[in-house]
Amino acid sequence: MRYALWLAEAHLRRADRAAARPLLDKALTASRSMGYAQIEGLAWWLIGECLAAEAPAAAEPNVEAAMGILERIGARNDLARAMITRAALRQRAGDVATARALLDRARAIFRELGTLDEPTRVEAGLADLDRGAPIALLASGP
Question: CA 138, CA 39: separation in Å to the nearest integer?
Fold first, then answer.
């Protein structure tokens, strides 16, 4: 299931939502039936990413579910990644203050963990907020 999620994330980074979604649906179903909470949280997050560009209001509950699961199990790096997506969704809903708070919290988690690559996405998101530009989703690149 983890490989399917990596492949789905790669499809999203190429903006190929149609290829990502079936992989995510299968991973979600399997993870829920077997009780793999981290896989379930990641699947919810990436499903939210799939929906974000075309249906941001529908995407947000998925990302919220992901964040709840990932926070509950202590998957902090993955939680912070989902926070970036939720920040983009909050920004699109006009809630810039919450978007900034989510990005600040994600940045703090990444710093605490010593994550190397994801802080770049946070800094780009904060710069987007400052310019009034949309925060980039996975499918739109860093």
Answer: 18
CA separation for the pair 103, 30 (Å, rounded) = 31
| Rounded Cα–Cα distance for residues 23 and 37 (Å) | 17
Q: Is the pTM of this model over 0.90?
A: yes
The whole-angstrom separation of Cα 24 and Cα 2 is 10
Q: Which residue has the tokens 């400052």?
A: 130
- Alpha-carbon distance of 66 to 24, in angstroms, equals 13
Q: Express each pLDDT in 91-130 by its tens digit.
A: 999 999 999 999 999 999 999 999 999 999 999 999 999 9
Which candidate, 42, 52, 34, 35, places its Cα nearest to that of 3? 42
